[in-house]
Amino acid sequence: MKEIYLDNNATTKVDELVFEEMRPYFCDLYGNPSSMHFFGGQVQKKVDEARARVASLLGALPDEIVFTACGTESDNAAIRSALEVFPEKRHIITTRVEHPAVLTQCRNLSRRGYRVTELNVDGEGQLDLKELEAALDDDTAIVSIMYANNETGVIFPVEEAAKMVKAKGAIFHTDAVQAVGKIPLNMAESAIDLLSISGHKLHAPKGVGVLYVRRGTPFRPLLVGGHQERGRRAGTENTASIIAMGKACELAQKHMDDENTRVLAMRDRLQAELTAAIPNTRINGGGTSRLPNTLSIAMEFVEGEGVLLLLSEKGICASSGSACTSGSLEPSHVLRAMGVPFTCAHGSIRFSLSRFTTDEEIDAVVRELPPIIRRLREMSPFGREFLDKK
Ligand code: PLP
């Protein structure tokens, strides 16, 4: 069975052009970029090229790009760095809907004596910047607010937030793992100090990430040892994956307009056709700005896990929350923070598209999902009651 892959916020296919770019750096060009000889030097050149490609996608300078092992490492490094830069400051601000890569770390730090403010979101999953303004004080070391949410695709006003935070003298970090490659970013005109990226969300392999560190932002490394990454991240570089990341960023830049038009049109068609065919649905975050590729649809009186299994039997891959929180039957922390009613939160499914998604795949979901929902509603007492009333 050929898969219909609509779970691109969990991970993406490695673009074949990306794979071709990285392939020689395993068995042929395996030199260490730190070596003095020509063999290492040619790899160093490709790493530099990759750095320039990532910088170009972000509108950043090449020396502001630090390669890491994943988005989680970038998030951890950003927060740890700020706390070391300002040892006297004990306050951290984040939001209730961050990815666990930020939230778990903040909660661990709160157990170690840091004061952590988790900003609320409204019913659409959107932030109120007045709450941020009220929370900021002279004790705030870092504010970490994600650029776009992995479950709903909701885009936060991070540029405005960054300006407010800078005015208070704190460091501003954003987890842009879901945003980079999907919407344009320009660090040259931004107040963001630190920004996290993950390779496997933009058609590069798993196990490579980036932390953007604005020139002049004080920074303390999480990993210490060798002088790699100009002392900002020790450890011999994952050269093949770094080179892949550079190529993936180059392709993302090239395809950005396409993502914003073709992918958005497919997502909007999926949304319109599913809401027309399935009664009692709501779109999580549908009333605010969202990533063009993400659709989180809540369907009353069904269990998300049941829907996923039946979709999976038809070859359709989606997700019932974030990839990292599925597996537990609790509604996700994001939907809970939004106050999505329990009956809807349980039946929330996320479809996330990519530039490889086709119209035929969207047709398949529109054909297969409505009968699955009807069947599951017929099987549940609440669902039957609801169907009887209609
Ligand atoms: N931040 C967000 C918003 C994510 O969606 C993810 C992955 O799902 C991460 C961070 C973690 O990235 P990685 O898997 O590269 O550690």
How would you describe this structure to a colleague?
It is a single chain. This protein is an alpha/beta fold and 390 residues long. The protein has two domains: 4-12 and 256-389, Aspartate Aminotransferase, domain 1 (Alpha-Beta Complex), CATH 3.90.1150.10; 16-254, Aspartate Aminotransferase, domain 2 (3-Layer(aba) Sandwich), CATH 3.40.640.10. It is 42% helix and 13% strand. It is built from 13 helices and twelve strands. It has helices at 16-22, 24-27, 38-58, 71-85, 100-111, 129-135, 158-167, 239-277, 304-313, 333-337, 342-345, 359-379, 381-389, and strands spanning 4-5, 65-68, 91-95, 115-119, 140-144, 171-175, 194-198, 209-213, 281-283, 294-299, 316-317, 348-352. The chain has a seven-stranded mixed β-sheet with strand order 2-8-7-6-5-3-4, sandwiched between helices. Strands 9-10-12 form a three-stranded antiparallel β-sheet. A two-stranded parallel ribbon has the order 1-11. β3 (91-95), α5 and β4 (115-119) form a beta-alpha-beta unit. The longest helix has 39 residues, at 239-277. It is globular and about 75 Å long. The two termini are 36 Å apart. The model has no long low-confidence stretch (mean pLDDT 95). The protein binds pyridoxal-5'-phosphate. Pyridoxal-5'-phosphate binds at residues 70-72, 75, 99, 101, 146, 150, 175, 177-178, 198, 200, 209, 323-324.
